[in-house]
From TrEMBL, chain A:
One of its GO terms (biological process) is protein transport. Belongs to the small Tim family. The keyword GTP-binding does not apply. InterPro entries: Tim10-like, Tim10-like_dom_sf. It comes from Ensete ventricosum (Abyssinian banana). Keywords: Chaperone, Disulfide bond, Membrane, Mitochondrion, Mitochondrion inner membrane, Protein transport, Translocation, Transport. It is a peripheral membrane protein. This is Mitochondrial import inner membrane translocase subunit. Residues 10-60 form the Tim10-like domain. Heterohexamer. It is found in: Mitochondrion inner membrane.
UniProtKB/TrEMBL annotation, chain B:
This is Mitochondrial import inner membrane translocase subunit. One of its GO terms (biological process) is protein transport. The twin CX3C motif contains 4 conserved Cys residues that form 2 disulfide bonds in the mitochondrial intermembrane space. SUPFAM superfamilies: Tim10-like. Belongs to the small Tim family. It is found in: Mitochondrion inner membrane; Mitochondrion intermembrane space. Keywords: Chaperone, Disulfide bond, Membrane, Metal-binding, Mitochondrion, Mitochondrion inner membrane, Protein transport, Translocation, Transport, Zinc. It is a peripheral membrane protein. Residues 27-86 form the Tim10-like domain. Heterohexamer; composed of 3 copies of TIM8 and 3 copies of TIM13, named soluble 70 kDa complex. Associates with the TIM22 complex, whose core is composed of TIM22. Residues 1-21 are annotated as: Disordered. Mitochondrial intermembrane chaperone that participates in the import and insertion of some multi-pass transmembrane proteins into the mitochondrial inner membrane. Also required for the transfer of beta-barrel precursors from the TOM complex to the sorting and assembly machinery (SAM complex) of the outer membrane. Acts as a chaperone-like protein that protects the hydrophobic precursors from aggregation and guide them through the mitochondrial intermembrane space. GO terms for molecular function: metal ion binding.
């Protein structure tokens, strides 16, 4: 069976999509614990949704800052 | 089997042609979706059990099951909020 370029391209795309899904999943896992403290309500309070938004961005920025500290500079 | 690796040609039995790329792509998409769903629900189950079941009884009370239902909705919503915040972030 030949590995058609179309199939290779598809595999690359799916791999990237899976990586992004996994990242969102891990961030949601962490940020949920940090931001949603009580039993869940029928909607998020404004502070809970702000917390979730900020949490994800903070996580990424923290990761990038850590990379800089250990010597990777863009 | 790693879903990203292709089956080796020797694994195809003689007389059968290898599946078309379209079939392979569909199979892969289905496998990935299933794996994602399994992991997602495993996470939701543990988060919502922690929040909603404080004193396990012999069956779910009405308030426990409505808590779990709300929890699932909120967790799905949280996944969306976080996904969007990553791709809309000002830098």
């Amino acid at each position: 069976m030949d590995n058609s370029p179309e199939l290779q391209r598809f595999l690359e795309q799916e791999k990237h999509k899976a990586m992004i899904s996994e990242m969102v999943g891990k961030l949601t896992n962490e940020c949920w614990d940090k931001c949603i403290t009580g039993a869940p309500g029928s909607k998020f309070s404004s502070s809970e949704s702000a917390c979730l938004t900020n949490c994800a961005q903070r996580c990424i920025i923290t990761f990038l800052e850590a990379l800089e500290v250990i010597g990777f500079r863009s | 089997m790693d879903p990203f690796s292709l089956p080796s040609p020797s694994s195809a039995s003689s007389g059968q042609s290898a599946p078309s790329p379209e079939v392979l792509m569909d199979q892969l998409k289905t496998q990935l979706a299933q794996a994602y769903a399994e992991e997602f629900f495993e996470t939701v189950k543990s988060k919502c059990f922690a929040r909603c079941i404080t004193k396990p009884g012999t069956s779910l009370s009405g308030s426990e099951s409505s808590c779990i239902s709300r929890c699932l909705d909120r967790y799905i919503e949280a996944t969306g909020i976080i996904g969007r915040s990553l791709f809309n972030s000002p830098h």
